[in-house]
Specification:
4-stranded antiparallel sheet; 0% helix; globular
Length: 95
């Protein structure tokens, strides 16, 4: 089954599938085509479930925009989604 997570603060949609090892993420915009593929996390173990960590658990100093916990058969794996930056001049557009 598909597990969708939407973050309205950064207009990102995260899709994880039960039994799949991937988490794909997309940017949602107001103009056509409305959805833009960004990237995906590919894990070697299939996930049984995924949960989004509350925003207070995000490391803004590392330009992290989302954090998830991925439940696998024998372990829980933390996932971090970050925005790459060339300079450290500020992140006002993210937070």
């Amino acid at each position: 089954s598909l597990m969708p997570f939407y973050d309205p603060d950064v207009n990102m949609l995260y899709l994880a599938g039960k039994g799949d090892g991937n988490v794909r993420y997309y940017e949602i915009v107001g103009d056509e085509p409305y959805v833009h593929y960004v990237d995906q996390y590919s894990g070697k173990d299939p996930q049984r479930g995924v949960g989004m960590v509350p925003k207070r658990g995000v490391d803004t100093a590392e330009t992290e925009i989302a954090k998830f916990l991925r439940l696998c058969d024998k372990h829980i794996e933390p996932l971090s989604f970050k925005v790459p930056r060339k300079s450290e001049s500020g992140n006002d557009d993210l937070y």
